[in-house]
Amino acid sequence: MKKLRVALQLRDDDIIKILALVDFKIEKTELSAYFRDEEHTNFRPCGDQVLRNFLNGLVIYKRGRREEKKNEAPKRP
What we know:
By secondary structure, the chain is mainly alpha-helical.
């Protein structure tokens, strides 16, 4: 998540907005704990749930919400 933040030039506020797109609320202080050095006392590892919601929100942030077609039948493999 640290590398994505740097590569996409995202600030804490941007990440909070991205997570809000998928109805995942996080405080700025909690978010900053993920980006601290592992030796720091306030460091917290980023869990799967946070990363999953961030990636899902990032898709919406970059592409927009997906529109469902009403008359189209679901595809079967």
